[in-house]
Amino acid sequence: MPYLGGEETVRELRRALSNPHIQTDHLRYRNTIHRVIRLMSQGVDVSGLFSEMVKACATGDIVQKKLVYVFLCSYASVNPELSLLVINTLRKDCSDPNPMVRSLALRNMCNLRLPGLCEYVEQPLTAGLKDKAACVRRVAVLGWAKIHALLPNTEIDAAVVNELYGLLRDPDPVVMVNCLRALEEILEEEGGVAINKPIAHHLLNRLKECDVWGQSEVLSVLQRYRPRSEDELFDILSLLDPALLSHHVPIMAATLRLFLSLCSMLPAVCVSALERARGPLLAAAGSSSRELRYAALCHIQLLLRSEPGLMGEHYKRFYCGYAEPPYIKQSKIQVLVELVNDDNVAVVLDELKGYCTDVNTETSQAAINAIGSIGRSYDDRCLGILTGLLELKQEHITSAVLQTLRDLVWVSPQYGDAVCSALEKWEDQLQDTQGRGALLWLLGVYGDRLSGAPYILEDFIDGVRSEVSAEVKTELLTATLRVFLSRPAETQDMMGRLLQHCIEEELDMCVRDQALLYYRLLHCGIEDVRRVLQCGRRSDLSLGPLIGRPPEPISQWASIFNTLEPLMLGASSNGFQFGNGPELEKALNMLSFPCTRVWFLKTLCLFVVIFQAYVMCPVPRCSPESLQVALQLVNIQTLAFTAPNKLPWKMYLYTHSSHTLTPHSSTTPPNTLILAEVLQFTML
Amino acid sequence: MIHSLFLVNSSGDIFLEKHWKSVVSRSVCDYFFEAQERASEPENVPPVIPTPHHYLISVLRHRIYFVAVIQSEVPPLFVIEFLHRVVDTFQDYFGVCTEAAIKDNVVVVYELLEEMLDNGFPLATESNILKELIKPPTILRTVVNTITGSTNVGEQLPTGQLSVVPWRRTGVKYTNNEAYFDVVEEIDAIIDKSGSTITAEIQGVIDACVKLTGMPDLTLSFMNPRLLDDVSFHPCVRFKRWEAERILSFIPPDGNFRLLSYHVSSQNLHPLRSTSLVAIPVYVKHNITFREGSSQGRFELTLGPKQTMGKGVEAVLVNSQLPRGVLNTNLNPSQGTYTFDPVTKLLTWDVGKINPQKLPSLKGSMSLQAGASKPDENPTINIQFKIQQSALSGLKVNRLDMYGEKYKPFKGIKYMTKAGKFQVRT
């Protein structure tokens, strides 16, 4: 009970602190201060004792000083006037013969965090930079960074900056690293420390002397350096080579990142660096710390984007342990999907099958999704597993399986028959919105082959009044209309009921509008309905080669290696769902990322087309790659293209409109996405 | 780099906070609490949580979350490693790292945190150097301090920071010169239903405790250095010499440190390694069945030693998460004690030592919820054990030599194998 009786205790402590008997007794005085700090850590407001504590600061006892400083730094901002009293003592301490006292005073002077006191601090800081003792210089150097953070608008004196640059050559390695850190903060607006050849070489030569934290920071600063010649580059690389095998994962990761940025023009060197770092990375992925394991796994996912073969033979190291937290299991599952090849597909599928019944629903869904994505490139064993899972009759599993099946037949329509036979005996009830959406989609598409489809739909239509999700309702409308096209006799009556309900009673505007649209469409005649509903939404088999996503160049992700971003990607990439509405925006944002083929195709279908035109033009005689590069120069990006020897050869392009560039901005709303499909009918 | 640190216990209270730059309001932890609430188990909280202005990177150890608040882009591995170092330091100082221990020693904790980071940058993290700055509290010292009024803070500058070899202080003196090395191996394995190994790997470390006078230069050689190819060293080891001669040559830090860590995996395709596949030291015979429509299930488990190079398997502890449908168990252990928690469905069997003549077994029946369908998955069995005086990979130290000093040190080496994440699927 920290807050109760707080006032009473504070009063008692004040009495004790100002009691001359206690003040003269070294030990009792310190014990009282101990109690103050203890109370402070419990959340009691002891700021009232500030003036008593200021007095306690004037002592020769270094422990007492430390304790008082801890107190003062926490409460200085509440008592700016009284803090002025401390400055005097602190400045006196700054000229103490004991370097410990000097560094302590200097550090705490900057930690008071009072912008008003900065003018008093600058002089001792300047003196501190020239101090004989390394520990004082260490503190003084960082002190300047603190002053800069306190007064962001005032420039730090150029002379001080120069002095700091000079201190990069200080004999003490910690002073050197602190200098780097301070300069990075002070010169942030100019892009950090200027790394020229002498500084870079100096840092590299002294790398060994720094502690692990310092090393990893020096390595990250060195990324800005560009060696002049190839010889210099290789000298640097061979100097750094042992660090790739470092015992400390942070150093290994920082070194690898530096390698990748230095060798961006030498892909072969990058690949061999990745191979070298494979061992330590795998070890980190099996380390006893969960957090480290997760971070390593996220980075391995990055590596696999370019070098899918890198971990091939080690796929068993990514099997999930029983008691591992779901976030690790999910990223392991994602890695496993990348590592599947002809030899291990059977074993990996067996393993994944075990995860499908995991207690954690997200993990089991991730495993089911994984089986689905393996199914895109490998035989129908996957389909057997998925349909087998339907028999477990577990709500969340069924829902995930249905979604996976929907995505799978979207890409590989040849599985249609198998899916139909699995759905033939469907008689379950589903609560989950996404699962029901997927079921309806499948019913709509395979309505002609599933004998029971109209009856399942009828159940849905009978319950439409109690349906809350708009997503399910729109999906239901489309599915009913599709089934109507193939089996009008069975469906006509219920479709009528559904349309009537959605137009007259429905409150959600999206659903109502869609119902109205279908109603009017039906007035136009059956042929038009068929054209609208059954064209365009089919997947395109000729995009086949995109299945095996081509390995990305390493430079694509080298800049985010060893940053927080891969961990964020890992967290967001699972459970991403496409629907209508706001997801479209998300989908558009995702286009700037390299996206998978399914994503791409799905996204294309979601676009609202404002304007469409066909342009015929002669084809330039050049390879697809050079065409791509040329288009990039004028800000047109390539989304996807088919294999070069396919006919017709296809390429999808996009760009964003902007007001300044397009003269017709009155007709195109700002930020319109312009998509183009390039078809080529002759071989180059 | 690291802005602030919050220590949060498993019930979601912040019991300690420390700010190195400006003060960040406690409300930033609300994002963390949200994630904590969503997670079903304490360890399910994701290690990195983005918030509008900060990132929260957390590490869970000893049921305490160490939550670092980050404002700008940082290497996540760096922060995670640092947080672990903080926990290790606390453990080193207080023996245990619990909420109670931290609260009892709150003043030392503040002092330590103050020394370990300055302006958010790691400063002194080597336990050697920290211990010179701040003396760890011991019961004896607390008593002595109270009587004599001496301090728990070193009054001198740590000399180690000024020596030419950054990890070793100058002028070390001992009356007994000793160097001890512990080879500790942890085996992680997954064994499938039929008893064949799905994956097995060994994580090994050599921890050293070196108390030698002066500036000794040590060399350590192995009988079978080929075993070690996936290895990482303490910065003191001369890497060039290792690459050329496969000998560890180093000037050791003073006190306790981790000399090297290594990794041996069962599926290494290296031709020379085919003989040293990871041996599995114990086997499990199990028969766990549920019958459809019956409210009884059978449970039988027998443990036995396998490939242990003649050493006994000790401190064996088996636990298993039984399916939700199990109401209670009626089991009979041939040795040791077993407990079953009907709420969490966790079965624990403390076996003790395995006697190869009389294998320990646990047999009996489980009662199931009436009318519930048969559980679709059999439980996984986790096993912990220890094997003294043996390193499972077969790693052996050949000899240890000392140069640079005149005296004769006392040398010792100990081997131990432990189970890491060792699980058997049934």
From TrEMBL, chain A:
- Among the record's GO biological process terms, what is one? vesicle-mediated transport
UniProt keyword annotations, A-Z: Membrane, Protein transport, Transport
Presence of the UniProt keyword Endoplasmic reticulum in the record: no
Give the InterPro entries listed for this entry: AP_beta (IPR026739), ARM-like (IPR011989), ARM-type_fold (IPR016024), Clathrin/coatomer_adapt-like_N (IPR002553), TBP_dom_sf (IPR012295)
Which Pfam families would you find in this protein's record? Answer: Adaptin_N
Q: What is its main location?
A: membrane
Per the record, membrane topology reads: Peripheral membrane protein
Domain (Clathrin/coatomer adaptor adaptin-like N-terminal): give its ranges. Answer: 12-522
Q: Where in the cell is it found?
A: Endomembrane system
Gene Ontology cellular component terms for the protein in this record: endomembrane system; membrane coat
Homology family: Belongs to the adaptor complexes large subunit family.
Q: Would you tell me the protein name for this molecule?
A: Clathrin/coatomer adaptor adaptin-like N-terminal domain-containing protein
Automatic annotation (TrEMBL), chain B:
Matches recorded under PROSITE patterns: CLAT_ADAPTOR_M_1, CLAT_ADAPTOR_M_2, MHD
Q: Where are the transmembrane segments?
A: none
Pfam families found in the cross-reference section: Adap_comp_sub, Clat_adaptor_s
Give the bilayer topology.
Peripheral membrane protein
MHD domain segment(s): 176-425
Task: List the InterPro entries.
Answer: Adaptor_comp_med_subunit, AP2_Mu_C_sf, AP_mu_sigma_su, Clathrin_mu, Clathrin_mu_CS, Longin-like_dom_sf, MHD
Question: Where is it mainly found?
Answer: Golgi
Question: Localized where?
Answer: Golgi apparatus; Cytoplasmic vesicle membrane
Q: What keywords would UniProt list here?
A: Cytoplasmic vesicle, Golgi apparatus, Membrane, Protein transport, Transport
Task: Return one Gene Ontology term, BP aspect.
Answer: intracellular protein transport
Regarding protein family, the annotation reads: Belongs to the adaptor complexes medium subunit family.
> Mind telling me what this protein is named?
AP-3 complex subunit mu-2
Please report the organism this UniProt entry assigns to the protein: Esox lucius (Northern pike)
Encoding gene, per UniProt annotation? AP3M2
